[in-house]
Amino acid sequence: MRSPLRFAPLLLAPLAVWSCGTGPPPQTAAAYREPAPVSSESVPPRVTEVSPVADYRDVISLYRAKLSEDLIVQTIRDDRPVYDLQADQLIELRNTGVSERVIQTMIDSGRGPEAVTAAVVPPPPGF
User: Fold this and answer.
1) In contact, 109 and 73? CB cutoff 8 Å
2) 5, 31, 32, 102: most buried, per Cβ within 10 A?
3) Quick one: how far is CA 56 from the chain centroid?
């Protein structure tokens, strides 16, 4: 009985010849076109992504998991979630042991950077 592999060189030869090509044919000067210039008017303005409203109970879960206050504050500052906190939610956060520093960070996270800086930096002495 003859081996079916004896036909392998015949089947693979065209593949070998095709793969040894030098790439696409070179373009002539007539075939080359300069790319169209991009004007600043055609580029859409960059849209900043708005964070969805975050769940305050996630912060309570982090506190119950015994994560440090510094880590929770840094996570909130890095992720910049927006918390829509009502009075009853603030009371719940405080009653579960969440520090005022973390609660203030949660409130500040939904504001723009100018508002956060203004809230954190005290006025200079003499004012």
Assistant:
1) no
2) 102
3) 21
Cα dihedral sign for 91, 95, 100, 103?
negative
Domain count along the chain: 1
Q: What is the pLDDT of residue 125?
A: 73
In a domain, residue 106? The reply is yes
Distance, in Å, from the CA atom of 28 to the CA atom of 30, rounded to the nearest integer, reads 5
Instruction: Show the domain range for 105.
Output: 53-114
- 4 in a structural domain: no
In a domain, 22, yes or no: no
pLDDT category, 11, cuts 50, 70, 90? low
**Strand locations in 1-127, DSSP E?**
53-54, 82-83
